[in-house]
Amino acid sequence: MSNRSSWNLLMRLAPQTLLLLAGLALVALLAISIAFLVNQPWLGLTLAPVEHDMIGLQVVDVHTKSPSDTRVLPGERILWVAAPDHPPVYLLGSDIAPDPDQAQTYAEYNSMLARQEQLATLLDQPEVILGLADGRQIRIKPELQRPLESFHWLFLYQMVCVACGFMVAAGVWAFYVRELSARLYALSGMGLVASILPLAISSARELALHAQVMQWLSITNNLGRAIFATSIVAILWHYPKPLFRFPGSLLLAAIMLLFWVLDTGQYFETINTGARYPLLFLLCVGIWLAVLQRKQSRQDPASRTIINWFILSALIGPGMYVSLYYLPLTFNLEPVASQSVSWIGLSLFYILMLFGIVRYKLFRLERWWLAGWLWFIGGCCVIAVDYLLVSLLHLEESISLALSLMLAGFLYYPLRQWVWTALPWHGDNTELLDILPSVFRRDSRLSSEIGNADWREALVRIFKPLETRTLDKNLDRPQLEQNGLSLGVPGIEHGPSFELRFARRGGRLFNLHDVKIVDTLKILFDHMIARQKAFADGVYSERARIARDLHDDLGAVLLKMVYRATAPEMQATAQEAVSRLRMLINALESDLRSLSEVIPHWRVDVQERCADSTLQLRWRHYDNHTDFLLDSRQQINLRRLLQEATSNVIRHANAKEIDVQISMDGNRLQVSFTDDGVGLRIGAEESSGMRGMRKRVKELGGEIEWQRLTPSGCRVVWTIPVPI
Fold it and tell me: Computed from CA positions of residues 354, 360, 366, 367, in that sequence, does the dihedral angle turn out positive or negative?
């Protein structure tokens, strides 16, 4: 299989599979490193430099059950190391320096390697002689293997740094294998491994390793630093937005590779020129690119958030390493902290980037990225617990596996679920659960139509955008815009499409999960609208049937009564019944009629009643916004209100004149009905007619008020909401 075919096959694997492969590769590297250290000769001593640069090394600790146990005591000073047939080698503080790269010149570097070779050769002998400061000479037979518990905590910390940085970088790449920025980020994780792992092996040695091993560890460490720094700078060249068409990242990589080759061949006079100055040059380029990215993202809040977080992570992370260790060493000063401790900065870089991925969707990763990580961590937890139970408690494999599964089930998975539900995107789901019941309650009433404005209001309540605006184009389905900065939403009921911008008041970006929510909600809204239309069609058909039955049956009977009535009063009553039936049938048959169309009918109705009782009528209505439509229920109720008000005046008010005014107040229809009669009695209870009027107004969602006028008269005003 060709390399290209293998790469294509790798890119088609599921993210969890890629993450698992990366984890296995990392475990293999760590296992090889630990196995190499375990198979080194071991004296059982923990050594430290002597103060004031004196010759010899101080014994800090002696491990129990080691070759030096009870032979050498903590606090004693070892001056030299020898072996039978081998001359003594006097010890220096630099012999246990973590990295020979701390030297300033290649001559010093080669001298350190030569001393390491001498000491490692002595430790390989069956018997080693230690010369103490008090004159004693102690013969010790080194163990051929070193126990795991003898490793210092710093070695474990360095392993954790390697694992965290590499797996975070690999996790980004696993979900976006084709994305250039994700590949560069993964490459920085590889550089971190290539840099920290050799340093961890070098610093974990008891006294010495062979010169060739130390040299290869140093060369790999330098290569890893160059890869890490070049990758981070290359990310800034391309992300969040490409800055130049020129392939500057490749040029930087070629320059760093050239300097690494020249440094390895020791073509320069000082290590500064070969290794440190190029990294400082990269640092300056990175700062320049960060400034350019920030300027370019001034009009793009999403990109500005990404670059600001990236800069913050770089300042706290690599900035700590450079300021505490690298800069002092470059200027021939004592580092503020050792290189091992300074690696805390690079660990913080990956931790901060991890937070940025979850919070700000760096590299456009969505919530499923964290889900994949939780899946991977869950498997690692089961394996780790099983290993600890076997190695520490010496339990049988079946028992330890059962216990580890129990711990994972009862501790890890509930904890993971708690973390998952505590993350910020769940606020949207909670809002969704609060909104849907109210929407369904409205749908169940069927009297309040759902339109595009309700659709827009529901999405605003769910996503809480900072801004909404109507789009000029029509969308068929929701779509992400501007890398999640906005979400385009199709309208319903032939309404215009619109755009939501800056989700959660600018607190996060829109994502694919939001698109799925909008898709699902649109289906629900379309279903509710279709249901309401079907209900309205059914109501209209039923009203038409009732109107036909009333016309054919009851209408015929009433007409017969009109023609057969002999007394004038009976004939007038029958004609009134026919008139009211005709009005009721018209209201049932008409679905929607404009206000300007029904007002003349109302006036005629009131005028006829006034003429029968010698009342004078003043009728005024204003033509502003009278083109809106009233449904049959509104038409009937408003007509009945006028009839009831007129009847009350005729029966109880002893009035001479009625004044009716119809006008619009915003989106509310207002009717004012005034008479000059005796007015309302103080303390009088509402009559049945007044209660009936209040009930009709309430049914229309409006308000009604009776006012006592001075010196006499009464005014009743009712207002109802109407669509404009």
Answer: positive
Residue 605 sits at the vertex; the CA angle it makes with 601 and 606, to the nearest 5 degrees, is 120
CA R_g for the chain:
44
Q: Please enumerate, as own/partner, the contacts of 282-291 that have beta carbons within 8 Å and a separation of 24 or more.
A: 282/229, 282/230, 282/233, 282/252, 282/256, 283/229, 283/322, 285/233, 285/252, 286/229, 286/232, 286/233, 286/236, 286/314, 289/233, 289/236, 289/237, 289/243, 290/236, 290/314
- Residues whose CB falls within 8 Å of the CB of residue 566, separated by 6 or more in sequence, listed in order: none
Tens digit of each residue's pLDDT (9 = 90 or more) over 252-263: 999 999 999 999
Closest CA to 150 of 37, 252, 50: 37
Q: CA-to-CA distance for 524 and 314, rounded, in angstroms? A: 46
Distances (CA, A) of 721 to 493, 621, 665, 724: 22, 17, 10, 9
Name residues whose C-beta falls within 8 Å of residue 58's C-beta, 6 or more positions apart in sequence: 47, 48, 49, 50, 75, 76, 77
Q: What are phi and psi of 703, to 5 degrees?
A: -135, 150
* DSSP alpha helix (H) spans, 239-276: 248-264, 271
As beta bridge partners, residue 80 has: 90, 131
CA angle, residues 77, 83, 88, in degrees to nearest 5: 55
pTM across the whole model: 0.57
How many other CB atoms sit within 10 Å of the CB of residue 684? 8
C-alpha span between 275 and 559 (Å, rounded): 112
Amino acid making up residue 196 = I
SS3 for 711? coil
pLDDT digits (tens, 9 = 90+) for 181-237: 888 888 999 998 998 899 889 989 999 999 999 999 999 999 999 999 999 899 888
